[in-house]
Design brief:
four-stranded mixed β-sheet; three-stranded mixed β-sheet; 9 helices
């Protein structure tokens, strides 16, 4: 088994454990502040999901090296969480007969190497040579009215957004017409649930050919197919990440059938959650009109 496959198996097994306990981890990958390192940089993609599954009060995490550098200590008996780091690798081989060889007969291939390392939540630490600043110990609180305003800002700031129509009793995205349809807000149990549903459909729309050109949207993926399941997971995760950005917490009903369907999918494909998290991150970066400084997912 390759390093990448081992990491994928470790992460998927953790998520399967949560599902078997009746918890759908991507439906609430936040507290009131998204997880971030002690330098203030938010974790993204699969790392946002992994750290969102924890129960710590603080959103801040640090590597053991960072703990030592800041003069803190890990409390006795504490266990670290894992996060993933993608490293770009280039490998050159001498293959003069290969059609892709350069003038020197060399062929260069690029791929990603997936590694994981360990971090501690600030709640697991104690003062050593230096005290832990109060700002690391508890998440910032966001007022309900501010959260709804943040959610609306996300919708209005989508740079090349599809047409959004509020009508009917179901939610959908139509690639052919580039139109998102959702019921009116008053039909939902709460404004938070309305925005969570709208975010789900907006993530689908990010996959249109003129945007991210994601196969889950551009290819034919009938209901129940593998491609359909993958795209739904992308939309689920992306919507959860956008809810975290807006600091809203919609209520979900985790039915047995729903959980069993994802257990089956994840057990059949150990790379599913890693790929979906990566695509979900790209989707919300597009919706939020954010560009990455570098292509690898930098968890540190």
């Amino acid at each position: 088994m390759s390093t990448n496959d081992k990491v994928a198996a470790i992460i998927t097994d953790r998520i399967i454990t949560k599902l078997e306990a009746g918890v759908v981890p991507w439906r609430k990958p936040w507290k009131s502040t998204s997880p971030r390192n002690v330098s203030g940089r938010p974790y993204k993609g699969i790392n946002r999901l992994l750290l969102g599954m924890t129960d710590y009060d603080s959103p801040f995490y640090a590597t053991f090296k960072e703990v030592q550098e800041r003069g803190w200590r890990v409390q006795k008996g504490q266990h670290a969480e894992i996060v993933v780091l993608y490293q770009p690798i280039r490998k050159t081989e001498h293959k003069p007969d290969d059609p892709k060889a350069n003038a020197d007969g060399d062929v260069t291939k690029s791929f990603w190497l997936v590694r994981y390392y360990k971090v501690f939540n600030v709640s697991q630490l104690e003062a050593g040579d230096k005290p832990i600043p109060e700002r690391f110990l508890a998440p910032d609180k966001v007022a309900d009215h501010e959260a709804i305003a943040f959610a609306e800002d996300i919708v209005t700031c989508y740079p090349d957004a599809p047409t959004i129509v509020q009508k009917g009793d179901s939610a959908s995205y139509a690639p052919r017409t580039d139109k998102v349809t959702v019921p009116k807000m008053e039909k939902f149990d709460s404004p938070e649930s309305f925005y969570a549903t709208l975010f789900h459909e907006l993530v689908h729309s990010s996959g249109a050919a003129k945007r991210l050109n994601r196969p889950g949207i551009t290819a034919h993926n009938p209901f129940g197919s593998e491609g359909y399941a993958k795209e739904e997971l992308v939309a689920e995760m992306g919507a959860a990440f956008l809810c975290a950005e807006a600091a809203i917490e919609p209520l979900y009903e985790n039915t047995t059938a729903y959980i069993q369907s994802w257990l089956k999918a994840l057990k059949n494909d150990k790379n599913l959650v890693l790929v979906a998290a990566s695509q979900a991150q790209k989707a919300i970066d597009h919706i939020l009109d954010e560009t990455e400084d570098k292509k690898e997912e930098d968890a540190a």
